[in-house]
Amino acid sequence: MDGASKMEGFWEFFWFIFVCFAFAAYLSVLFSIITDLFRDRETSGWVKAIWIFLLFVIPFLSALVYVIARGDGMAKRSMAAAHQVKQAQDSYIRDVAGKSPAQQIGDAKALLDSGAITDAEFQAIKTKTLT
Fold first, then answer.
1. Residue 50 lies in a domain
2. DSSP helix, strand, coil percent of the chain (3-state; round to 5)
3. Is residue 129 domain-resident?
4. Residues 26-61: pLDDT tens digits?
5. Max intra-chain CA distance, the chain
6. What is this structure's pTM?
7. Domain around 58
8. How many domains does the chain fold into?
């Protein structure tokens, strides 16, 4: 195998990797656009259908036009969705975590005052809660 055919094989491999990367990038953009279309409550169903039709008929051009024309709104809707997910996650964590450390120590103090636990047990609960 001579040097010219090795270089040709290298460039064919390089071109294959580049095309695969470009296709994966396009799919990522396509899924982002379709997600944004369904997330947008202000756009009518007909306009959404036209965009989806164009995305499959004229894929690269329509994706480029969509990102240029609606990119700002796309970013805002994406940030709003991420903010909503974060709020739901924080709410879930607060619900699952239960009481705050101050509430747990207060409950333990009430148990200590009623005589249900000893001072050593109260200190152990307090130490565990604060760490």
1. yes
2. 90, 0, 10
3. no
4. 999 999 999 999 999 898 999 999 999 999 999 999
5. 92
6. 0.59
7. 3-72
8. 1
